[in-house]
Amino acid sequence: MPRRPLDIAVPDLTGKRFVLTGGSDGMGLVIAARLAAAGAELILPVRNPRKGEAALAAIRERAPKATVSLRALDLSSLESVAALGETLTGEGDPIHAFIGNAGIMHPPERQTTKDGFELQFGTNHLGHAALIGHLLPLLRAGAARVTLQISIAANQGAVNWDDPNWERSYDSMGAYSHSKIAYGLFGLELDRRSKAAGWGITANLSHPGVAPTSLLDVRPEIGRTRAVRFRGLITLLSRIGVLGTVASAGLPALMAATAPGDQGGTFFGPSGLRGLGGPPAEQRLYSRLRSREDAARMWDLTQRLTRVPFPTD
To answer: Which one of 170, 176, 183, 286 is the catalytic residue?
Structure first.
């Protein structure tokens, strides 16, 4: 018997401007369609214009009155990140929510971004952090909620403090965990600093559990010519209800971004066995994300590497 789809209620988002990265396919497209259907003005920054146009058509098919538009963004290029920041700043509209959902995983060999950072660290963490820095005035103007999509991989491995770009000895999955722990630490520190300085921003974290999303598929842009070896098993376990689905994987981020009240500093994920699947709910922070000293250290490292300063007020 098919499982009854999981779902959450999304409040009316009319008049709210959302920026969502990674919204052109997979669980990101699920999130995008739900936000648009709830009335949000949705900005989708995309690297691939063709996929972006297909996403627009899919969203408008589900929500014909949706207000949604594309912008250009390559998170592996700090120049592209800065250009998007300049574009949105020039438009001048406050941003009420930012969901940093885009990411890459498990390139077959070490690769670097256009700025020389290890590809996963540079894309998953540094690119997003730099974009938040460039958009900070608009986020403050909108009293925004910032939601950063991490991963169950942030519950394993560690930050490679001595070699953050994995130049001396490369492990692809270790570097992926490193990137997601770094991203989570940064998000929690953003929330703390905003509260201390009165920026008006709240930030939280989400993770999608494990589901057969496009993150696991053939990805020629990172040199992966075949799906990851455990893709078939994940698909099977998803079908029988042990793991999540593409649709359910987007729900924790959707909840984190739209649940009423001050959700700053909280962590949302699937509530089933070991967080692999199930209904979304608030979760206990992973042990690797609990150190305030590590979060402050990552904040400083991020600013130094991206050369995007955050205010000190």
So the answer is: 176
Position 218 scores a pLDDT of 56
Which structural domains are found in the chain, ordered by start?
17-306 (3.40.50.720)
CA 178-43-268 angle, to 5 degrees, is 45
- CA nearest 24: which of 4, 61, 50? 50
Question: What is the pTM for the complete model shown?
Answer: 0.94
Q: How far apart are CA 73 and CA 16, in angstroms?
A: 21
Active site residue 286: no
